[in-house]
Write a structure and sequence with these properties.
The structure holds 2 protein chains of 2 kinds. By secondary structure, chain A is an all-alpha fold. Chain A contains 16 helices and 2 strands. In chain B, strands 7-8-9-4-10-11 form a 6-stranded mixed β-sheet, with helices on both faces. Classes of the chains: A mainly alpha, B alpha/beta. Chain B: Pfam families: ABC_tran, BCA_ABC_TP_C.
């Protein structure tokens, strides 16, 4: 996992071709909306569906860094756990409402990510990765030490899930899991559309250029550090939001949110789903969350299987699950075309 | 300094420890000319070039671009001022299309303005227009949607120069533009540089003597980190010191 570049598969179509913009954008967004609607219908519980979307959000944010900028960050857990704590503390101690808590988590995620990013990108390659690892470990111990605030090992209990309210008037009560799912789903689609927009912006196309050849990008006039820091910030904001939503889902902010394992989890989802494809992040998150849910019930050592799945995907499916879907689609189309031409 | 000098160095020095790669080089590149820097291996051409592009910070002396001191400006900040460079070893965005390579290059000139992340990249029509214009000039329009890495080597070298053009510079810095090119492709590059010389000021480092002699207005010959001779091609060709230091080496 040392070299961020070698972890980035030959970029998928989505990453390379802003030229194929608008129609593709609409197609993938529709696919996402469809997925978001179908998920709770096919899954045994809406809570599970909400968990998938929350992790898909975190994986998508990770993808902005790994797939589009070529930065392998082990710091995602800091932003996820940090977002969960900040939202929870705002609600518990300051009686903050839903939106204040979520925005607080995003601002915190963006700010921390900007600092971590600014320091980590002073080095490249393996040293960059090591720096994000070091920050991740540090954040864990900070959370562990500040047990008066975070609950330490016990986690932060009794995290509320306030209703959607404007000026004190409750509009939607989110205590029903299905309603909460709908709320998470709306936010997820908004984040997804925003992320696509970012990728197809001048900024996003520059990130891809930096991933492809940083030296040339700098020679063309880009201050590549600014771009990487902004990428980190955006990624941190989205991850912080996901963390806050997760705490509200569980009514609890466990210490494991900010552990290194969380960063690993998010990275694995991103890679299994397919770097360089935002929809892939949904597939990756769904795959891992479901696998965990199904297997942990029958076998406590299910993480071993996860390792096998990861090895399989990395070796045999260079584009991740999304790459697999794409090549399947191409094969079917080619076969159909063949059948049509051959009498 | 007079207005017709676009780039000037005063006593430029670059030391690697005790070794002086560039030892007091003073260059004056006149606007609208093609100025070549040549010299045997290890003469300090590339080190000088790196000081001009901002890749290396000189250990002494100054670099002035259009009368402005740029000695300590980082490479990316020089693009906005009107300096653009190409690389000796082709350095493209291999997996991106030829057009996207040029579009990103055109966008780079605007520097931090590309940080806008809420608008589609295509919204900046002018960058696409610049890309298309350069595609045409390089005769690469037919390959616009090909990945840069799939171009032939000669075409990649041409695109390499095009990337610098996309910045709409006033000074083009070319680092061995014919490096690694086959005999068949070299005339294409020579013609291209000759053409560019009519619109831009071009400063190039080159190994290939016949190109340098045929297109340059001024040639600076470097030897052991210093300027040995400077002048128009016929003067340089006739100079005995150049013969012994550079041409003689080949014989």
């Amino acid at each position: 996992m040392a070299d961020a570049r070698s972890m980035t598969p030959a970029p998928a179509a989505a990453a390379t071709a802003p030229a194929a913009g608008p129609s593709l954008l609409r197609g993938i967004t529709l696919l996402t909306v469809a997925a978001v609607i179908v998920l709770p219908l096919v899954l045994p519980s809406t809570t599970l569906a909400a968990e998938i979307l929350i992790f898909a959000m975190a994986a998508l944010a990770c993808n902005l860094l790994l797939g589009y900028t070529g930065l392998l960050s082990f710091g995602q857990g800091i932003f996820f756990g940090g977002g969960a704590y900040v939202a929870s503390l705002l609600m518990i101690h300051l009686g903050a409402g839903l939106f204040t808590a979520l925005v607080g988590a995003m601002v915190f995620g963006a700010a921390v990510a900007a600092v971590v990013g600014a320091l980590a990108i002073r080095r490249t390659g393996i040293y960059f990765v090591m720096l994000t690892l070091a920050f991740s470990q540090m954040a864990y111990f900070v959370a562990y030490t500040l047990s008066d605030w975070t609950g330490g090992d016990n986690g932060l209990l009794d995290v509320p899930r306030p209703p959607v309210a404007i000026a004190g008037a409750t509009l939607v009560d989110l205590s029903d899991p299905a309603v909460y799912y709908a709320f998470v789903a709306v936010l997820f689609v908004a984040v997804f559309v925003a992320a696509r927009r970012i990728i197809h912006s001048p900024f996003g196309s520059t990130l891809v250029a930096i991933r492809e050849n940083e030296g040339r990008a700098a020679a063309l006039g880009y201050d590549t550090r600014q771009f990487k820091i902004l990428a980190f910030s955006l990624s941190g904001a989205i991850t912080g939001l996901a963390g806050a939503l997760y705490a509200m889902l569980l009514n609890f902010a466990p210490l494991s949110n900010i552990e290194l394992v969380m960063s690993e989890h998010i990275l694995i989802m991103t890679i299994i789903g397919g770097t360089g494809s935002l929809f892939g992040s949904i597939l990756g998150a769904a795959g891992i969350v479901l696998l965990g849910d199904l297997l942990s019930a029958v076998w406590p050592r299910w993480m071993m299987l996860l390792g096998i799945v990861l090895i399989g995907v990395v070796i045999f499916m260079r584009g991740g699950l999304w790459g697999g879907v794409e090549s399947l689609y191409d094969t079917i189309r080619a076969r159909r075309a063949h059948r049509r031409t051959a009498p | 300094m007079s207005d017709d000098v676009i780039l000037e160095t005063e006593g430029l020095q670059l030391a690697y420890g005790a070794f002086m790669a560039v030892d007091g080089v003073s260059l004056r590149i006149r606007r609208g000319t093609i100025h070549a820097v040549i010299g045997p291996n290890g003469a300090g051409k590339t080190s000088t070039f790196h000081c001009l592009t901002g890749e290396r910070r000189p250990t002494g002396g100054r670099v002035l671009f259009e009368g402005r001191e740029v000695t300590r400006k980082p490479a990316n900040a020089r693009v906005g001022l009107g300096m653009a460079r190409s690389f000796q070893l082709t350095s493209l965005f291999q997996n991106l299309s030829v057009r996207e390579n040029l579009r990103v290059a055109a966008q780079g000139r605007d520097g931090a303005r590309a940080l806008t992340f809420w608008r589609p990249a295509e919204s900046r029509r002018e960058h696409l227009a610049v890309a298309d214009e350069i595609l045409e000039r390089l005769a690469l329009t037919a390959r616009a949607d090909t990945a840069a890495g799939d171009l032939s080597h000669g075409q990649q070298r041409v695109l390499e120069v095009g990337m610098a053009l996309a910045a709409r510079p006033r000074l083009l810095l070319l680092d061995e533009p014919t490096s690694g090119m086959g005999v068949d492709d070299i005339p294409v590059m020579t013609r291209l540089i000759g053409e560019l010389g009519r619109e831009y000021t071009v400063m190039l480092i080159e190994h290939n003597m016949s190109i340098v002699m045929s297109i340059s207005d001024t040639i600076t010959v470097m030897h052991q980190g210093k300027v040995l001779v400077e002048g128009p091609p016929e003067v340089v060709r006739a100079d005995a010191r150049v013969r012994s230091a550079y041409l003689g080496e080949a014989a």
